[in-house]
Amino acid sequence: MSSLEIKNLHVAIGDKEIVKGFTLTINSGEVHAVMGPNGTGKSTLSKAIAGHPDYRITSGDVLIDGKSILELEADERARAGVFLAFQYPSEITGVSIANFLRAALQARLAEGEELDASAYYKRLYEKMDRLKIDRKFTSRAVNEGFSGGEKKRCEILQMAMLEPHFALMDETDSGLDIDALRIVAEGVNAMRGPNLGVLLITHYQRLLDYIIPDFVHVMYDGQIVKSGDKSLALELEAKGYDWVKREFAAANSRS
Ligand code: ADP
Ligand code: MG
After folding, report:
1. Number of structural domains in the chain
2. CATH classification of the domain holding 42
3. Beta strands 67-68 and 141-142: pairing type?
4. Is residue 138 part of a domain?
5. Is the per-residue pLDDT at 255 higher than 80?
6. Does 43 sit in the ligand 1 pocket, CB within 6 Å?
7. CA distances to 20, 78, 175 from 143, in Å
8. Predicted TM-score of the model (pTM)
9. Ligand 1 pocket test, candidate residues 20, 43, 199, 200, most atoms within 8 A of CB
């Protein structure tokens, strides 16, 4: 069993502090949903954990199995088992999905070791079949001209191939119609298991009808202000985020 510990994390972009003391431990096998209003720091949190260089961790720590990963570069964190599915995936003109994934897997091998091409394609097609992705998909350039749903499917395929220990999924549901949402959820559910911990960031409760989280946390003003089980997500759906903001303001004015 593996653990991803986020300890009192503070993250700044430029001089502005965005994440303000975020604490959460994700064990393998667990799915934690983080919900919260726009602008509250959810994407900043996930990018900082993945090692995006623009996001400065000013204090706190992120540990995998008790060992800090903050000194690691983004690619080293990926090799340590962290995967980030972007809210807004980038297009990579001229690079096919098949070649992109092959390069990503090759990069994880030791110096001088060569990825076996036939084994690679076998694995790729197995994963695609499992995720119900058309084989023609792999010859297209990464995300180029993709619909919202196709981009998200591409993220899920990357995740399936890289087999991370911890997946940070940043609003993988945003901009999806209900069919695409189901495909994403099926993909995540297919990968769910004792070897994977998931941080599922979502603004809406809808995705959580398909991916049932073990824990739900509400993020506001850069930190977790409330935690519960999936019923908390339903409560948020019914009541919106205003009551969270009011409670937060009231608690802060008392202290
Ligand atoms: P969320 O994902 O919860 O909607 P974000 O983490 O994207 O929130 O943004 C939190 C705050 O940080 C917002 O005020 C946003 O404008 C700011 N922010 C995010 N990314 C950047 C950036 N690259 N440069 C400057 N400000 C940013
Ligand atoms: Mg975001």
Report:
1. 1
2. 3.40.50.300
3. unpaired
4. no
5. no
6. yes
7. 33, 20, 15
8. 0.92
9. 43
